[in-house]
Task: structure prediction
Amino acid sequence: MAGERLCPPGWTEVHAVVSGAISRGDIPFLHASLSDTAAIRLHEALGFRLRRRTRIVVVRVPERGNGDERSPRS
Result:
């Protein structure tokens, strides 16, 4: 997690992204969807490398109003 320190109108400074992890001896990591090539390029430019591909399944509760007015628990 990153912290916010300076917040001039319309901007937010992000700090302490990896310095805390490194000072504890942890190895920082990032994740991105395989289709998010811009994020992957940015991560690689910052010195990160692909370590593992992981399958993530997203499950969502259907929105009300789609003809099924039942509660998700019914």
The chain is about 20% helix and 5% strand. The longest helix spans residues 37-45. The two ends are 37 Å apart (CA to CA). The chain has a mean pLDDT of 78.
